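Chain and conformation:
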Amino acid sequence: MRFVTATLVLLILALCLPAEAAKRKRVRAWQPPPVKDCTRINGRWGYYGNPWCTPAEQDAWDRATSRPVR
């Protein structure tokens, strides 16, 4: 009886551990996408903006590079 119980426990562990490791690996592998560099361009006669960035990308860049308010 002990042999059967020990075999079942080992079989359950052998099946569960790889599945848990795969879940953890998937969670760790995901990283948020980097923020696109939307540095504002200033010209001779004032602010020209950044023509390569959408307004949403510009807003994300401004939030990422702004200093925290104290």
Summary: Residues 1 and 7 are 10 Å apart (CA to CA). The chain has two domains: 1-31, 33-70. The mean pLDDT is 78.
